[in-house]
Amino acid sequence: MIAILILLVISSFGQQFTDLYGDYLGQTPPGDTPMVFARGIVSTDYQEHGAPSFSPDGNEVYWYSNRRPGPENKEWLSFTMTMRRENNRWSAPYVAPQKRFPIFSADGRRAYFSSARPHSDTVQVIPPDLDIWFVERQGDDWSQPKYLNLVARYPELRWAGVGSVASNGTLYFMSYRLGQPDDNGNNLGIYRAELINGEYAKPELLPSCINLLPFLNWTPFIAPDESYLIFSSSRETPKADGGDLYVSFRQPDGSWTNPVTLGKPINTDQQERFPRVSWDGKYLFFSRWTPDHDEDVFWVSSKIIDRLREKSNIKK
Fold first, then answer.
1. Three-state SS for 49?
2. pTM of the entire predicted model
3. 86 domain-assigned
4. Confidence of residue 187 (pLDDT cuts 50, 70, 90)
5. pLDDT at 14
6. Which residue pairs from 160-163 have beta carbons closer than 8 angstroms and sit at least 24 positions apart in sequence?
7. Which residues contact 67 (CB under 8 A, 6 or more apart)?
8. Is residue 316 part of a domain?
């Protein structure tokens, strides 16, 4: 299966990849209108399941792709792609050695990811719980994965899907909302967990203005300073549209403003999800369903966030 996967990926990129130099794979920066990011390299005919995750120094990027069953592959294939930059030149895309999609810490020394792998060679959770794991930088490589043990310590979560991490280590992630009705299968909630003395405290469910029932609210991105949260929600979209992107601003007392839509042309009649702002704060990445390419990655200037902040009369 691994050999088939590698051959499929090589054949997909072999005719499209050329030498790339500079920031963000040398792509032309967008303005206020979203553009497909790196067509034929990151955005392909596969389903790009999430926005790309760039390292804080801009020299690594990871993204996650799904390939639906077809003539060449009888099963659904999922894989993490990566590229690295050395001397300002990007490598060709290749399948990451381990199947994980990392979310970098602000210093780039740690990367978080979600996995249902067993917690040890001898202990297998049945059924496996999706929990949050992390690896730490060791030279040009990473340490062995370690798990945060959130689900075992707080079993009411049932599972934990990583979303984003602030500069101080605070995690924002997805899980089930304990005791809440499962309307239309949308029983998901966005949680916040503080890092205290090297261990994550009991996660708190964000307020109902963000986790608005009975709608789908998920795929959170938190600003490095926790000043705003962007997430996908179906609260104002028709059934055929799985959700739009919204932003909520965190106030000095820790409360959150009512979320506001990022509006057109970022939001469309297709589902937008997996928002992620680049570490330099310049660009918003997200994924969108597209008729011809399944799900593509888009990027756009992040100035919309500042404009909505000013419109909401929130001080930066």
1. coil
2. 0.90
3. yes
4. confident
5. 44
6. 160/114, 160/130, 160/131, 160/132, 160/191, 161/114, 161/130, 161/132, 162/103, 162/112, 162/113, 162/114, 162/132, 163/103, 163/190, 163/219, 163/220, 163/221, 163/222
7. 8, 46, 47, 73, 76, 77, 78, 79
8. no
CA distance 131 to 110: 16
152-166 pLDDT per residue, tens:
888 888 888 878 999
Count how many domains the chain has.
1
Residue with tokens 């390299």: 41
CB–CB of 239/252 below 8 Å?
no
Residue where the block lists tokens 């966005």: 190
Which of 204, 266, 217 has the alpha carbon at shortest distance from 34? 266
CA 271 to chain centre: 15
For 197, other C-beta atoms within 10 Å of its C-beta total: 5
User: Residue 122 has what pLDDT?
Assistant: 42
247 in any annotated domain: yes
Residues in the chain: 316
Neighbours of 253 (CB within 10 A): 5
Number of CB atoms found within 10 A of residue 159's CB: 18
Residue 226 near residue 250 (C-beta atoms within 8 A): yes
Structure tokens at 54: 């760039």
DSSP state of 27: P
In terms of residue numbers, what domain contains 69? Answer: 2-311
For residue 26, is it within any domain? yes
**Taken in order 172, 173, 174, 178, is the CA torsion positive or negative?**
negative
Q: For 147-150, which contacts have Cβ atoms below 8 Å and span 24 or more sequence positions?
A: 147/115, 147/119, 148/200, 149/119, 150/193, 150/200, 150/203
Q: What is the CATH number of the domain that holds 203?
A: 2.120.10
